[in-house]
Design a protein that fits this description.
Shape of chain B: elongated
Shape of chain A: elongated
Helix content of chain B: 40-55%
Order of helices and strands of chain B: HEHEHHEHEHHEHHHH
Radius of gyration of chain B: 21 Å
Number of helices of chain A: 19
Strand order of the largest sheet of chain A: 1-4-3-2
Distance between the termini of chain A: 48 Å
Helix content of chain A: 40-55%
Strand content of chain B: 5-15%
Oligomer: heterodimer
Number of strands of chain A: 8
CATH superfamily of the largest domain in chain B: P-loop containing nucleotide triphosphate hydrolases
CATH class of the largest domain in chain B: Alpha Beta
Structural class of chain B: alpha/beta
Number of helices of chain B: 11
Structural class of chain A: alpha/beta
Strand order of the largest sheet of chain B: 2-3-4-1-5
Chain lengths: 456, 249
């Protein structure tokens, strides 16, 4: 409890300036004269980054308190500061305290009076609370206050350095030679991060690559019988090996394309995509795969090739929605390129607990850090409904049933409408062969066995 | 531009100290999005000064609103929403109206002028503070009030530290009347100081609204009698028209 008996502007500004969802702090400005405390739920949602009109548009005003609980855990919020707590009724104060306990949130009540009323005091006396002065509050978060300047670039912003057009064998060396140290550091961070991800992904597919290599050897084996004398069983075996190899290769190519789409989804500049693809080429070579890249085609494909992407700005807009089903559907569609059918078939177990990774079509696809809370909110809401790992993420009306494709499409449409972001309805543009051709990529196997590495 | 009381023809704007301070206050409030108060007795030119400052301050979007005595929060919310949007639904409850107000007040920098602010009660002041303090909004709030305004507002601790500019309007002193009245209207050019003070003592009382009413009547009488400036006969006739003048200073 922080007392501000003089009800000063300085205190209000100090507390309001502490609002920072990214670091787990939310500041609530309660609407005055709310005896039932109903509207405080809406004020809490607004404090959690929801748009002012979202509760009304999404018809969730009456569910504001439970939704606030979901979002408090999803963000996650560690410190919830509530201004003008002296105006809250004892019942509302009690409700707030319970919410804070349920969500593991430190609750800071800012009281702009010398003391609380007796009834309010009695409510709070049932919980352990401490008193703190404004100066103590200031000392606790000295750097959080008055931070008006944006943080310095981290390498994930729109200012990605221009990079040389050197081929992948000398690309990194050329970057080191031509770029200034800061730019090279940014490029190299992106390069190494991509390389690390791809090597881990390939390590998980070593057995598939080895199977393909064996099938390749079998298919290429020179016939030892003169023409016409080869036993039919041997010819059939070889044809079968060739067919299996073709199918396995086709499947693998699709996986690769899907992985590359996901990998480049959050790119901010064509140069960043080029750096990633150079790293991919280097990683693939270690596994006996040659990924050819035509930079001209890549340039013609254009930045993000028209795909809507899950940038921090888009995530912020989606965060303005209150309904976890909207935010999760939109975030997953944007992060993975999944369509309505893919989303409808998702189980809770397909996502990691922190919503960092979603497994879709056998691929583990990352969800950008800035968008995880959008998915996490639905995970939390479903767990609150006692859904287990085998339950569908998007539940249908009947118990245990999944939402229909049409329902998911409507969710995506609603998210598009409320958040004002474009969300792909289909994944046609991400068909592997088309995506490869559009980006001037071709993938071939080299006649070498893949390295023997343990899956990550 | 601000309009003179009774639409008085030939009247000029006289830059009193309070008038100039109001201009400065409006400009500062607009720049900072802060809260301010302009108060003083009725007729001293507060509303005229605020209107003139808003009209002359470039790029200021203003919204003026006044409420009945001791209004409810819903009346304040709907009244303000109506003044801002010209299309507020009377069926909204206070919370819905607040939601729309917060959005509307965050659209652009505005100066919201609440006239007759002495009519507001504590709840309504708390409500306006809520709108002003909310991070979604970006407006300056100027409370303009007559008798008792500052007494009402200064009782609220929440306003003490939030009032960034305060301008107090007081009746003009005799010296100020003598210095300024010649610039106010051509009727007073070359009029003896004794006559000006005679009118001020019996009618004007250092109050611009009284002086405007007097001048309006005096100008009509002068025009009818072919005079081009005020004299004692005209002054006494104006007193008679107004029932003997305005009682006290």
């Amino acid at each position: 409890m922080v007392f501000d008996p003089a009800d000063t502007l300085a205190c209000m500004r100090l507390v309001a300036g502490l609002a920072d969802l990214d670091t787990g702090r939310a500041v609530c400005h309660p609407t005055p004269a709310d005896p039932a405390g109903t509207w405080l739920g809406v004020d809490l949602l607004v404090a959690l980054g929801k748009r002012l009109d979202a509760p009304t548009l999404e018809r969730s005003s009456t569910r504001a308190w439970p939704l606030a609980g979901v979002w408090l855990r999803a963000e996650p919020i560690r410190d919830l500061l509530v201004l003008r707590a002296h105006l809250l009724t004892p019942r509302t104060l009690g409700r707030l305290v319970v919410l804070g306990q349920q969500c593991g949130v430190r609750l800071w009540l800012i009281v702009h009076r010398p003391a609380l009323r007796a009834a309010q005091q009695r409510t709070l006396d049932q919980t352990g609370w401490q008193t703190m002065g404004i100066a103590d509050l200031h000392r606790r978060w000295p750097t959080a206050v008055h931070q008006s300047d944006p943080p310095p670039p981290t390498g994930d912003d729109d200012c990605f350095p221009a990079v040389p057009g050197a081929d992948f064998l000398v690309f990194r060396a050329a970057c080191r030679q031509l770029l200034d140290p800061d730019s090279f550091a940014q490029v190299d961070r992106c390069y190494r991060d991509t390389m690390h991800q791809l090597l881990a992904w390939l390590a998980d597919r070593t057995s598939l690559l080895q199977t393909m290599h064996r099938a390749d050897l079998a298919a290429r084996r020179d016939p030892i019988w003169p023409d016409g004398d080869e036993p039919s069983s041997i010819r059939v075996d070889r044809d079968r090996a060739r067919q299996s190899l073709a199918l396995a290769w086709d499947s693998f190519t699709n996986l690769v394309a899907g992985r590359l789409v996901a990998l480049t989804t959050t790119d901010h500049a064509p140069a960043q995509t080029l750096v990633r693809l150079r790293a991919v080429q280097a990683a693939f070579l270690r596994y006996g795969l040659l990924l050819n890249l035509d930079p001209t085609m890549l340039a013609m494909a254009g930045h993000r090739d028209g795909r809507p992407t899950l940038t921090p700005q888009v995530a912020t807009r989606l965060r303005g929605c209150c309904t976890p089903r909207y935010t999760a559907a939109a975030a997953l569609a944007l992060a993975t390129g999944a369509d309505a059918a893919d989303l409808a078939g998702l189980h809770l177990g397909a996502l990691t607990g922190d919503a960092a990774v979603v497994r879709l079509d056998g691929q583990a696809l990352p969800i950008p850090t800035h968008a995880r809370s959008l998915v996490r909110a639905l995970l939390i809401q479903r767990r609150d409904q006692h859904a287990n790992a085998n339950a569908y993420l998007f539940a249908g009306r009947a118990p245990g049933r999944r939402a229909s494709d049409d329902t998911i499409r409507r969710l995506l449409e609603q998210a598009t409408l409320h958040a004002g972001v474009a969300i792909p309805g289909t994944r046609n543009v991400h068909r592997p062969a088309a995506w490869f051709a559009q980006h001037g990529l071709t993938l071939t196997r080299l006649p070498v066995p893949p390295p023997k590495v343990a899956p990550s | 531009m601000a309009r003179h009381f009774l639409g008085l023809e030939g009247a000029m704007t006289v830059p009193t100290e309070a008038f100039l301070l109001t201009h400065r206050a409006v400009s500062d409030l607009h720049t900072t999005g802060a809260m301010g108060v302009v108060h003083g007795e009725a007729g001293l030119g507060k509303t005229f000064a605020v209107d003139d400052a808003l009209a002359r301050c470039e790029g200021v979007q203003a919204c003026a609103v006044s409420f009945p005595s001791r209004p409810s929060m819903r009346v304040v919310a709907l009244g303000l929403l109506q003044a801002l949007t010209r299309a507020a639904s009377l069926e909204l409850n206070r919370f819905q109206a607040t939601q729309q107000l917060l959005e509307e007040l965050g659209q652009r920098h505005r100066v919201v002028v609440v006239d007759e602010a002495q009519r507001l009660n504590r709840e309504c002041i708390e409500y306006l503070r809520h709108l002003h303090d909310h991070p979604a909004t970006t407006f300056a709030l100027l409370l303009v009030g007559g008798d008792g305004c500052w007494e009402v507002l200064s009782r609220e601790p929440m306003l003490r530290s939030r009032i960034y500019r305060r301008v107090t309007f007081r009746p003009l002193t005799n010296q100020e009347v003598l210095r300024m009245i010649g610039d106010y209207h051509p009727l007073y050019h070359s009029v003896p100081d004794e006559l000006v003070l005679f009118v001020d003592d019996h009618f004007g009382h250092g109050n611009w609204r009284n002086w405007a009413a007097f001048t309006h009547s005096a100008a009509t009488l002068c025009r009818r009698s072919g005079r081009d400036r005020l004299d004692e006969d005209v002054a006494r006739n104006v007193f008679a028209l107004h029932g003997g003048g305005v009682a006290t200073r």
